[in-house]
């Protein structure tokens, strides 16, 4: 496979390590139309033409031949890794119930995906310089990315990517919410600073963009809105985005992102279900080939679209400038110099102190526990309802119990502290788990109290709550 893909490589080089030096050497440009893009009517017609790119290829050979026909000599790679909290439970089926980032003697799903990406996609990237970023941890949440290197330099090949990954993981605190906007914005910044050269952003993630249960149908959560806006904005640049899904999913929303994103200059987004492909009954080589095909099948037409739209080789100067945070440090060196701290999306601002993990809501992962009961237990003033796309085990593992002073001693040990709701004793677990089942279209409450004691907190088949 490597020999087949390597035939596409040309003489394009990026130069020495370092983000600014990458920008300087990448700015030499790629073959193709690098003009201003013609008049407004022509651009509108081309945008309509490339608004949806179908999956038209059936073999890797067809994809590589199409790439060759379009004159694609190389496509610079950018890698983004998801470090959100959901990685702790989305391996229930696919990774024996372990965190998807668990390190051991055998590769975890992220390492496996990165390794195969290295074998299948790296031959497009001749100089082997790969900017690598993480997002969704306790230092970046949904507003920034961190670089795998302190000086924001790229990794030299996928072997170094894997080495840096294993060095970073032990020092991370998984967090959230999930948003792909920060990594997309970071990639667009690189594209613009390198003179509009064609890039492929590969995002490896375990789940969908955060969507709360109280978001109405047809509406978008803040994270969804920013993700959509960033992908639409990215279609004005020569950038293809490939989202590689690892873990159990669910992936329904990502399929929608792939096919139904609105108002883009061209269809720039491709979703690949890595877990599904690698679980097929086939040889490893066949599965790796299938993964390569799924990841690359839209690239030839996407590359052609960037040429015909006149965005290849064009620098807008309008891309948001992204200053990645440094990689998480060991516990002995957690305090960062002020010059490296950030707040929100400001490039040089000071980052706010991160609350301890036991001080934030374990459902939304961001709201602080800011309400104390007489018994000393803490909760959030605004109850967070778990994402209905989360799995049942995740909700039980992350339930945040609240209590009132009079109730606490009465039911401790029966599943957590409780609150009164309409005169009825309800555990925090019942409220969030019931919301989960109702979001799944089931009218049964999975747990309820009879006013004096706990009946059930696990089995929705026991009946409908008489207090609902």
UniProtKB/TrEMBL annotation:
Q: Which UniProt keywords apply?
A: Signal
**Which Gene Ontology biological process is one annotated for this entry?**
protein ubiquitination
Q: Does the keyword Signal apply?
A: yes
List each copy of the X8 domain by range.
Answer: 382-467
In its UniProt entry, the species of origin is given as: Lolium multiflorum (Italian ryegrass)
Question: Source organism lineage?
Answer: Eukaryota, Viridiplantae, Streptophyta, Embryophyta, Tracheophyta
What top-level branch of life does the organism fall under? Answer: Eukaryota
UniProt-listed Pfam families: Copine, X8
Q: Which SMART domains match?
A: VWA, X8
A GO CC annotation recorded here is: nucleus
Name of the protein described by the UniProt record: VWFA domain-containing protein
Q: Which GO terms describe its molecular function?
A: ubiquitin-protein transferase activity
Q: Where is the VWFA domain?
A: 74-277
The keyword Signal is annotated on this UniProt entry: yes
> Which residue ranges does the record annotate as region Disordered?
9-41, 320-354
